[in-house]
């Protein structure tokens, strides 16, 4: 068993700079299969290198106790031009309802028994309270923060309390730089679903697009909201999620750049089951309760590579690429001839009927 | 709703929506209704969750698609999609938390903005299992429901009080309305599967 400190030392020895580290992740060379893999070190190094957020532990403000005045010291490192904005509310006042909502959500953070501990709840609350000064708290932030905290804790349960808090804060704040504007702003989220996700779904897999959007009339934002706001964590399981995050953090400064393609890939994997649904309620149920299985590092790497291929290919090539992928995922079907998933549905039903009739 | 199959295990489909402040127990009500389970602590709903249960009302098999929404989402672009096609909307407050009761009118306002006029609204005061913690009386809930012109029940997802009744009562109201509407205008039937594409379309 290699100690957390030795993992970091060996990683630094092997990869002398962050670019080499990122490249190693993308090539599948540095993953949880590697004996000295340190996810906290990877995330912290990449985030620090990419976003430059490097708050110190003494910069985190304490959460005011009930009836206590709020500390209004500005911890922002970013110098901004002063702009006069009109507002109906006192900008220095802190909405105690928000603090109550944070506490309520943190009490319901059930991703790991670790979060039952009062000390840990207080850490998450303090991180949320401080982040709220940059971006008003939204439900979901707490869970992403919890996932990061958990990874740091798992790697080194003895990590000093203030260290785990500030490291979580820095990684969390870095990731949120793209997640908040894209997905936590309701208008932008709807725009993203329609003009990015739907567009690529139509280009990559037109029959699947037709089935979801035209036949079942499912508005993508209805189910995508949880996929994207929690960066896949509720949909595909925590272990798979953090593996995907390793790659996505290393691929681009926009953490969400591969989101549409990865989600389309997950949908394509489920295409036959979606095709078999009788109504949009059944489809929606599947999309909101994605039947995931544990993915190996190799499988995650392959999914990332496909996503990058979709991202970097010209739009007029996406449909043929999608067909190639469908053939790999679901063998025995002439996907180049499939224009309508209804036919597949009928064939599958017929096949099942024949199989059950042949059973002794 | 796609109406492409003719062999369905239900006669009608209704979309129901659970709305209300965070932590009032919407997800617990849904879990109790669909799986007859209760958990004192329930993970925060992000966006929506969704469960399906088929019930029988007046001899008709009704498939209920129940959408459970996040408490923080109100008056936002995303919510318009939730309200679209909802046949029934349940506003939930927590009888042990006055603030959630005070917000009922805001939620009702959201319904007026986003839902169709014929959506049936139902007011529910949840967590009525602990008399010591009660902050909103039954009479206050009843009076507000009367003011809004909607039916009212107090429930407890924990003890399973009135949860089944809530959904059955709401479904019956919707079904009766749909029946009268169908009688009044036979071109707009609610039967599913009988005549190709002529289905109730209360989802999405």
From TrEMBL, chain A:
Q: Give the source's domain of life in one word.
A: Eukaryota
Q: What is this protein called?
A: RabGAP/TBC
Q: Provide the coiled-coil residue spans.
A: none
What species does this protein belong to? Answer: Cyberlindnera jadinii (strain ATCC 18201 / CBS 1600 / BCRC 20928 / JCM 3617 / NBRC 0987 / NRRL Y-1542)
Q: Which GO terms describe its biological process?
A: intracellular protein transport
Q: Name one GO molecular function term.
A: GTPase activator activity
Q: Which InterPro entries match?
A: Rab-GAP-TBC_dom (IPR000195), Rab-GAP_TBC_sf (IPR035969)
Rab-GAP TBC domain: which residues?
33-252
Automatic annotation (TrEMBL), chain B:
- InterPro entries reported for this sequence: P-loop_NTPase, Sigma_54_int_dom_ATP-bd_1, Small_GTP-bd, Small_GTPase, Small_GTPase_Rab
Q: State the source organism's domain of life.
A: Eukaryota
Residue segments, region Disordered: 182-204
Point to the regions of Basic and acidic residues compositional bias. 182-198
> Any keyword S-adenosyl-L-methionine?
no
Q: Which GO terms describe its cellular component?
A: plasma membrane; transport vesicle membrane
Family statement: Belongs to the small GTPase superfamily. Rab family.
Q: What is this protein called?
A: Ras-related protein SEC4
What is the gene called? SEC4
